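Thread: "does anyone have the structure for this chain?"

Original post by V.I.:
We have the sequence but no experimental structure in hand. Need at least a predicted one for the grant figures.
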Amino acid sequence: MNTPTAGPTITVGTIALSFHRATAAVIRRVLEAHGHRVESVEAPHEQLFRLQAEGEVDVLVSAWLPSSHGGYLSAYRDRAHLLAPHYHPYCVWAVPPYVPVDAVREVADLARPEVAARMTRTIDGINPGAGISRFSARMVTAYGLDRAGYSFTPGTEAGFIARVERGIAEREWFVIPLWRPQYLNRRHDLRALTEPEGLLGTVDAAAPVIHRPSLARIHPQALARLDALRLGNDGVEELDGWINADGLTPLAAADRYLAAHPQLVR
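Reply from O.Q.:
Generated one for you, tokens below.
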């Protein structure tokens, strides 16, 4: 492919989680393939949406709509242009595969005395601004798990991953607030619990958000490629696994993925 003429610098804002970094790296490569220089900004959920509302971020990766991030986007929805979703995420509570299905099938089962006696009752999560964290804090009360001794504690992504790896290694009974796409799903075959109250939200659409004043600065063909980009949950989990399990940088993971799917940038 011929080197394209240099275009305007585009700021890509990424939610500070590994699978968002993976998706943002693919978006960066698409923009670069059409002549743009890319500057990167990374921040937690609420802060990144605030930065875009203030005009500091051209492309935000990505808004999970309507459940997880709809409230953050609503403050400036009239100045936001949504691309077609790149994947369709959803939130779950999950347990390791060695926890018997007949003991723990749904969230309410966690409160059964014989289950609570075996489970670790501190439920560890990621940063408090994530949809899964907001939903999980509410679920502890809604399902009466607090009365059985459970509590939800938000934390960092690194601490969350380390907690899962440690629990699996020790064959601990624990429940983890999780989502797809996330590489731990395929790494450990974690089993989602039924959540009949619907407190974990819907299946969302993960759409990059473009600040409307930035639309004219993005090459039309790059915009068309980004709007047609379909990674799917499996594709994002594959990228996320290369970053977390194989030690690739997000850009190296994106390059590997695009080498296998060259039609995404051509």
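V.I.: this helps a lot. The chain has two domains: 10-88+203-264, 90-192.
O.Q.: and The longest helix spans residues 18-33.
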